[in-house]
Amino acid sequence: MLARQLNDLPEALARALVLRGITTFDEARRYFRPSKETLHDPFLMQDMDAAADRVGQAIQRGERVLVYGDYDVDGTTSTALMTSFLRSQGVPADFFIPDRFKHGYGLSKAGIDHAKTQGAKLIIALDCGITAIDEAAYARSLGIDLIICDHHTAGETWPDAVAVLDPKRPDCNYPFNELSGCGVTFKLVQATLRRLGQDPESASQYLDLVAVSTASDLVPLVGENRVLMREGFVQLKEGARIGLRALAKQGGVDYDHVTVDRIVFAIGPRINAAGRMEHARQAVELLLADDMATAQHLAQELERVNNDRRKLDREICDDALDKAKIQMGGRFRHALVLHEPGWHQGVIGIVASRVVDRYHRPAVMLCTANGAAKGSARSIPGVNIYKALKQCDDLITQFGGHDFAAGLTLPEANVPALRDRLDRVIETMVQDPDLLLPSIDIDAQVTLHDIDDRFWAVLKQFGPFGPENMKPVFQADGLRVVGRPRTVGSGAHLKFKVAQNGSAAHDVIGFRLGKHLPTVEASQREGRPLDLLFSVEENEWQGRVSLQLVARDLRLANHGP
Predict the structure, then answer these.
(1) What is the pTM for the complete model shown?
(2) Yes or no: domain 444-556 corresponds to CATH 3.100.10.20
(3) What number of other Cβ atoms are within 10 A of residue 341's Cβ?
C-alpha cells in the first residue's frame, strides 16, 4: 500500500519505512522532506521567555556576559555558538571552559569566581548545570544572574536560576526532548532574536555547529534533530566557519559529501582531543577563528593532540579489555566495572565505548583523581545507564548523564560494591537475556538486481543516519563470489565482489571482518553461495563515485545461523 502511494517505491524500502514507524503518505513526505518550517517554536520550552528576556536585556545594555561550557564537542560547539552570537550583537562576551583535571565536570565555584573577576553580570551555562544547585546559589550570592541550557536528565529538583532550559525537565512540555546541548543553545538564540525584533532565520548561520554537536553527541537522529542535521549539512557545504574548514582539511573530510559518520570519526575526535588531553579552550578558539592562518595553526595543534590521544587510547584499551576478560571469566556479568588508578581520565570514556562494543553490556571505566574514583559509563540499547546508576546513588558522590552515557565520581573504597550492585541492577533491567547478545536488525530481503540508481536515490533520502535512524540493513541470499577476495588494512578488513543470477558484480567491503576471509574463499572454491547482511553506501575514490555493499555479517548458504 505505502509502496504504491509513493510511486511504486521499491518494496524493500517501503518495508524499511514501516519499520521506522512511517505508514502514511504524509508521514513519508515529512520524513523525506524535513524542513526548518517543521521546527518547534522555542518558546514552547519551559523558562524560554525568561531566558530570552534576560539575554535580550544583556544585549541592549551591553552587559558583560560569561559563556560557561563543557569540555566535550557538545559543550565547545555550544560555547562557540553563544559567544559568536553575543559578540555579533555587540556584547563583550568571554567564555570559560573548565579544566577536566582541575575543575571536573560542570558548573563550578571556580568558574563563577572567574565571572565575578571579569565583571560579568550574567553567566550562560551550556551543556551542563542541571544538577548545579549549590553553584547556582553561590552565583546568586555574588549578584550574578544565571541561565542554564542543558539536555541531561533532570533530577527531582533543579537549580534556582533566572531560567533553566532543559527539555528533559519533568515540567517541560516542549514537543521534543532529545536535542543536544548545542541544539538547546540554538533554540535560545532563535528566541532571543525574536525578542529583539530581529529575523530568527539569521540563527541558521550556526547550524554547522549544531550539526557537529548533534552527530558527535550521539543523540537520536529523529524529529527535530534530523531536521537540524540536514540543514546543518547544507551550512557545512555552503558556509562552514573557518575553523571547521581547517578541521576538515586535517581529517580528510569533504563537506560536499559529508555524513554523520565522517563527523563522528574525523571531526568530533579532533575537537574532543583538546579537552581530553590538554584544555578545551583551544577547540573553542578554533571554532571562533576569523582568519585561516589562525585556524590552520589551531587545527594542526588539535591534530597533534589527537594523535597523542589515539596512542594513549590504544594502550588503555588493551589493558581494559584484558581486565574485562578476567572479570567476564568468573560468574556471569550483566555489567562491567573496571578500575585502574593510573588510567588517563581524558580517554576512559572512549575506551568504555570500546568495552561495550566488545562485550555488549554496560561498562564503567574508572581511574583515580584527587583521591576519588572518577570515570565514565556507557550502555547498550534497552538499558538506561542513568537510571541504573540512580539505583546506586548511595555509593556514588556525584553522577549525571542520559540513557547511553554518564559520568560519575565515588570513593575508591566503594568500587567493589558498585561493581556488584550495578550488576544486580542491570540484571533486573534486562528482562530478555538476548538483550546482552549482539544482534543485527534486518530491514528487508533484496536481490542484487534491486540495487540500482533509483533504489540508491530513494535510500539516500533516509539519511542523515544515526541513533534511532540507522542505515537500513538488507539480506541477500545465494550470492556468487567473483574475482579474488582479499583482506586490506593489515588484515583487519575484507574486500570481495559478488553477483547473483546474472546481475552485475557488486563491490563488498567488510570493516573488521577480515577473519571471514576463509569463509569467502571456501564459498568460491567449493561453489557454495554466500548469504550476506549489508548496508549500501557510496564509495568515493580518486574522484570516482560508485555504490558498494558494506558487509555486516556473512555465512555460507544453507548454513545455520
Answers:
(1) 0.89
(2) no
(3) 10
